[in-house]
Design a protein that fits this description.
The chain is built from five helices and no strands. It is an all-alpha fold. Helix 1 packs parallel to helix 3, helix 2 packs antiparallel against helix 3 and helix 3 runs antiparallel to helix 4. It starts with a helix and ends in a 23-residue tail after the last helix.
């Protein structure tokens, strides 16, 4: 069964009990003073009014509880029936207040009549009046003691009610604190998982950074090696070009010196001789490997 339904049923039972007890107290107030001559009044009128007022306060709080629980019921039919029951309770509560007022007026009238009868007996004299005075004095003392005890009990009850309310507020505060702590725990778990993922991501980024550094170092080393290789090859080619150029110049210089030492008669052989052509080797093409 739903928890709200259970609370509603409990409230109904408490209302029935409190309603019956309040009616009993109101009837006792209404009958107060009728049997005073026989000494049958064991509870004072003030005590009866206090009990009736406590019953009305309890009924009012039960109305408030039912008004809070009605909208939380699971079905619309239950909500409507509970609201109609709440209206009935309100009418009964107002009727009890009116009856309590009427009962107090009736009790005062009864006490007035009883006092009138006692006055007549006291004025009449005799043994009956003496016994009545003694009984009245004894009843007055007992009534005073009972009223003082009742007042102390009412104060104790009020203190207990205050302590119960304070304990209830403390429990509510504890429940709220528990809810806040549970919420904080769930948030902490979420943050912890987020921190774990962040830590893993940072570890991955660190590994990637190390790999990138290694790749950069290796690439830079290869680039430097290639540059050194190209520079070394370039320097070797320049030296080779210089050596080849020097050799060609030396050969040309030697051929020119030999041509200047020949006799003039040998240069022209009557026009029939073909002059010797100096075989000069062609300069070989040097290709730049760059």
């Amino acid at each position: 069964m739903d928890e709200v339904v259970v609370q509603v049923e409990k409230t109904k039972r408490e209302w029935d009990d409190a309603y019956e007890k309040t009616i009993e107290h109101i009837i006792a107030i209404q009958e107060y003073g009728k049997s005073r001559r026989e000494g049958e009044e064991k509870i004072s009128l003030q005590r009866l009014n206090g009990l009736a007022q406590d019953g009305l306060s309890l009924l009012n709080s039960l109305q408030f509880n039912l008004d809070l629980l009605a909208p939380q019921l699971p079905s619309d039919d239950q909500v409507q029936s509970t609201q109609s029951l709440l209206e009935t309770w309100k009418n009964q509560y107002q009727s009890l207040r009116v009856n309590l007022r009427s009962a107090n007026l009736k009790a005062k009238d009864n006490m007035r009549k009883a006092a009138q009868q006692e006055r007549e007996l006291l004025l009449g004299g005799g043994t009956e009046s003496t016994d009545l005075r003694r009984k009245r004095q004894a009843n007055a003392g007992v009534t005073s003691d009972a009223e003082s005890i009742t007042e102390s009990l009412r104060r104790s009850r009020q203190l207990m009610v205050q302590e119960v309310e304070r304990s209830t507020n403390t429990l509510v505060a504890f429940d709220e604190s528990t809810g806040v702590l549970k919420k904080a725990e769930s948030e902490y778990k979420g943050h912890r998982s987020l921190l774990s993922r962040t830590r893993n991501l940072l570890s991955t980024m660190q590994r990637q950074d190390v790999i990138d550094r290694v790749i950069l170092i290796i690439g830079f080393s290869l680039f430097v090696c290639a540059v050194l290789y190209v520079v070394s090859k370039r320097i070797g080619i320049l030296k080779l070009q210089q050596m080849a150029t020097a050799a060609i110049k030396a050969q040309l210089a030697g051929k020119a010196a030999n041509g200047d030492a020949m006799p003039i008669g040998q240069e022209f052989d009557g026009g029939n001789t073909v002059p010797n052509v100096v075989d000069i080797p062609l300069q070989q093409r040097l290709h730049d490997e760059l």
